[in-house]
Amino acid sequence: MAAYTTVNDPTIYMNPVPYTGTEVTLSITGVGFQPDLVWLKKRGNTSSHFWTDAVRGVTETIYSDANTAETTESEGLTAFGADGFTLGDDYEINQEDQVQMSWNWKANGAGSSNGDGAQTTTVSVDTTAGFSIVKYDGTGTNTNFGHGLGVAPNVILVKSTTGSHDWVLNGDFLGSTTWQHKLILNTNAAKATADNFDDTKPTASVFYLNGSHSTVNGSGETYIAYCFAEKTGYSKFGSFTGNGNDNGPFVYTGFRPAWTMIKCTSATDYWVVDDNKRSTFNVMQNTLNPDRTAAEYTGSAYGIDFLSNGFKIRNDDGQYNLSGGTFVYMAFAEAPFVNSEGVPCNAR
Questions:
Q1: Domain range holding 302?
Q2: HSE of 266 in the Cβ direction (CA atoms, 13 Å)?
Q3: Is residue 71 located within the same domain as residue 133?
Q4: Which of 97, 126, 179, 189 counts the highest number of beta carbons within 10 A?
């Protein structure tokens, strides 16, 4: 069988890791790399989604369920380590005896100056994984910013760290070659037409932003952008159509997923995230909503299978499978369908 990917071990670039809170200083290990973006969520109770990255720095937190500016959580994520991270005693991410979840991505540390665009950015990038974290200052004018990937990103997620603005997501999978649409990560809104990205598709070196939108490029504000370029056998960003049936669509990714995030773009409904560590066998029935503080939902109403070469929807819930609905997804691999030596992976 022919070689399929150069990313033989996706878990050294993205890895979901569960843990149990202690409400005292806690070191989480087993991530497999030094993470540069860590997304944390309590599973059993209501809590915010904590996002901390190496470019903004430890304790600096933004929340995907809110449009609020960055806050300093002094007892939040306090250190990045070679194999994980350290938490203070923050109740929302380290409550004693509470099951918690971390989703971890690798970039390249605190980043360095990038002058590819009209405006200088700070970029932390791993080109093998196709992921960069970009920090930039808004200009209030139409301009462009370097992202460091070396290829055009397929998906970009932007959040102001200094202002109370929505999280704006755009990508090829929204159906516009000029990126004239958007989704909002912190709400359940359907896809909307917008020119936040200046009606211009990103290039291999820069992405374009409209200065009329303070959500992405307001004068005097600071922003963080998470940029993703698809990598065969490791990441896939696409769309599918729901059939409203428990025997739902199969979506080919070219790998056995470790993590998926799905959103209906044609109707109002919540974002849903599944991973291979909270649900260790099929049918998987544990979901969290990035746009809500709600605890994890469990049950057959949210069923999904992770397969050796993709995922299959096993429910008729509108969050996953509205009949005739259009959905987009982001998926990251546990193992490629076929590795660089031509060896196929097994199903779960």
A1: 235-336
A2: 14
A3: no
A4: 179
